[in-house]
Write a structure and sequence with these properties.
The structure is a single chain. This protein is an alpha+beta fold. It has one domain: Heat Shock Protein 90, CATH 3.30.565.10. The chain is 36% helix and 23% strand. It contains 4 helices and 5 strands; from the N terminus they run βααββααββ. It has a 5-stranded antiparallel sheet, covered by helices on one side. Helix 1 runs antiparallel to helix 2 and helix 2 runs antiparallel to helix 4. The mean pLDDT is 83.
Amino acid sequence: MANADIKLKIPSAVFYIDPVRAFIGTLAKNLGFARKRVADIQLVIDEICSNAVHHGSIDATVGIKLQIRSDAHSLEILVSDTGSRDNKEKHWLTPERLSEIEANRSPSNEGGHGIFIAKSLSDTYEIQINAAGGTDVRVVFKLLKPTDIKP
């Protein structure tokens, strides 16, 4: 499959995440990812987009942006939000907040599991503050071919 650079912008509402998840799942499948890995990719995208909608959006009209790049070896997805009006949520996922979230993550807490899932299931996971005042989350999934696996 040829290299692709796809840009999407969706309203900041949970309703729009499912079609994005389906699209990325179909793309990953067509790129040659195994069915289990496609499910992992979809779960990560669901978690990152949900966080961007819930924590990194002023309202639904602002939206979140996705930049999807693929080549013969990987699928890279960047999710960008603009931050919220609430200063505590402006940069919802800074390195400091990430440490705090991870320290407080437990089976009895509702929050913090999505970040752990995204970090665990992606090959690369990066966060940074963006110029819009929000957060960028970048994940990369490497496409392993049978010849890439060493016995």
